[in-house]
Design goal:
Length: about 425
């Protein structure tokens, strides 16, 4: 059913797995097993629109691997969602959870829709119907969804409520990234960005770049981009440029992330912000800066623009923003890349902390959550660096080798039944 050559991102995910497996000299049967998701669910989601018409949206939940623990991963709403994309993202979740050593496997969900053109009521109906259609394959010890592109705390509250209504009692641990008042965790909202900031700080130390004098450009001003800008700004870095789907802004003196967010809330975009120069998303990626943080969608840095990237380091906030071809060019040009499965793992790490709090019926303070996140991210960063030394390779390959090694070990220990 899944075809190679249809979706670049899916092909890249397979290629990365293939390369890591070769380095680890894995048995070809295990590689075949890891290439294929354990379960792919496709559903059609009918929604009665506000104008009385019906529309049908395609929804997916792909469960890639659960050798290390229950499936885990977000749900995205985006017009370009396809089965191949969701499968690649599900695979990435398996590797990501393994890199930060969480007792989870990997999954991803998505609905092909344009949430920007839907009302709150329509989104609620879509979410509840989609949840009811995947209810038999998710569950607190089976598969735990979370937010991703264009889904948020409210979406998670609807998922929790729908699932709980179907089962007859409150089950907050079926989903993470919920609002704090219905079982969410302190610190989850900004967790992905805090993880991005921590890995930026760690790579800065590693490469002797003073973070508090560094210049940072961020592509994407959603949940990940905004909080990454805010935290890094608080840590003394200068945010010189940010962008969203409508375009970008540049101010060499440094932007105030909160003021930019207020402007975006008022006008719908970061562009035309007070005194800043308007630039395109392409220009943002090619700016001269210390750290470039792509925090939007996949396939942004490709063989077409990798030659022109002038950042010293790329820290991936999004999933899959750099293609393998671009990776090779960047490696030759000595531009360091902190890979997504390490740098944006802060989100799923605090998802895990939220889930543990739910299962134990506890509530931890923000300080406690942030401390645990800090420990996990710093440990994962050090693990990837040591794999990089051992296998004499860049951070992307090192993170993949580490992840595939951990997952393959679990698969081998469990064995293939019967
Ligand atoms: N969607 C986020 C990711 O790609 C978070 C997943 C989660 O918390 O389960 O890592």
């Amino acid at each position: 059913m899944l075809k190679q050559g249809v979706n670049k991102f899916f092909d890249s995910a397979l290629q990365q797995l293939h390369e890591a497996s070769q380095t680890l000299e894995l048995d070809s049967g295990i590689v075949e097993f890891l290439k294929t998701p354990k379960r792919m669910v496709i559903v059609s989601v009918p929604v009665k629109r506000d104008n009385g018409e019906f529309n049908v949206f395609m929804g997916y939940r792909v469960q890639h691997n659960n050798a290390r623990g229950p499936y885990k991963g977000g749900i995205r709403y985006h017009p370009e969602v396809t089965l191949e994309e969701v499968t690649a993202l599900a695979m990435l979740m398996t590797w990501k959870c393994a890199v930060v050593d969480l007792p989870y496997g990997g999954a991803k969900g998505g609905v092909a829709c344009n949430p920007k053109e839907m009302s709150r009521e329509e989104l609620e109906k879509l979410t509840r119907r989609y949840t009811s259609m995947i209810a038999e394959v998710i569950g607190p010890l089976v598969d735990i969804p979370a937010p991703d592109v264009y889904t948020d705390e409210q979406t998670m509250a609807w998922i929790m409520d729908t699932y709980s209504q179907l089962k007859g009692y409150q089950i907050p641990e079926v989903v993470t990234g919920k609002p704090v008042s219905v079982g969410g965790s302190y610190g989850r909202r900004e967790a992905t960005s805090r993880g991005v900031a921590i890995t930026t700080r760690e790579i800065a130390r590693h490469l002797n770049i003073p973070l508090n004098r560094s210049r940072i450009a961020i592509q994407g001003y959603g949940n990940v981009g905004y909080y990454a800008a805010k935290i890094l700004h608080e840590w003394g870095a200068r945010i010189v440029a940010v962008s969203d789907s409508k375009g970008g802004i540049l101010d060499e003196r440094g932007l105030n992330p909160e003021a930019v967010m207020e402007h975006k809330k008022k006008t719908g975009s970061v562009i035309n912000y007070n005194g800043a120069k308007t630039i395109t998303n392409e220009e943002l990626l090619e700016l001269e800066c210390d750290f470039l943080i792509p925090a939007a969608l996949e396939n942004q840095i490709t063989e077409k623009n990798a030659d022109r990237i002038k950042a010293k380091v790329i820290v991936e906030g999004a999933n899959g923003p750099t293609t393998p071809e671009a990776d090779k060019i960047l490696y030759e040009r000595k531009i360091a890349v902190v890979p997504d499965i390490l740098s944006n793992a802060g989100g799923v790490t605090v998802s895990y902390l939220e889930w543990v709090q739910n299962l134990k019926r506890e509530r931890w303070s923000l300080e406690e959550v942030n401390q645990k996140l800090e420990e996990k991210m710093v440990k994962a960063f050090a693990d990837v660096v040591s794999y990089g030394k051992k296998y004499e390779t860049n951070m992307r390959n090192a993170a993949m080798i580490l992840a595939v090694d951990r997952v393959a070990e679990a698969v081998n220990l469990l064995g293939i039944w019967p």
